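Revision sheet: structure tokens.
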Amino acid sequence: MRTPSVEVISNAALSASAATLPIDVLSRVDDYLGRWSIALLAVFVCLALLVSLLQKRRMQHNRALLQSNKEMLATILDSVDAYIYIKSPSLEYQYVNQRMCDLFGLSPDNIIGRRDEAFFDPGSAAEINQVDSGVLESGKKVTVEENNVLQGETRVRT
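Predicted:
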């Protein structure tokens, strides 16, 4: 009879150890994943910082290249013997070449953002606005000979 009692104890011990085994395994898995998740998180943060740094450097390079191209274009347009300008849809100057600056006797900063009414008499400004509006609507290049009068002058400029 002793043998059956030993078997019963062994089964009870096995059943108790089987109940604690999954908890131990789960605890070990949690510890293992916890350590790796922190390491993976650190790797992802490092990668994100590296990508951000590379994008920032690329953006700085592209800005420098854009500025260089803008300066080269301005040099070319300033050397052309014509009045060259770019206007917004609201007919405000966005760019003027040196010849336009010489015409108005002002620097680009004092011209950009202003409309023709600030520089020409009302009749000339209306004619220029009509031509410029047509260009903006059609999107086509227009070359015209204009006869304009600057504000404060009586002389007609062609």
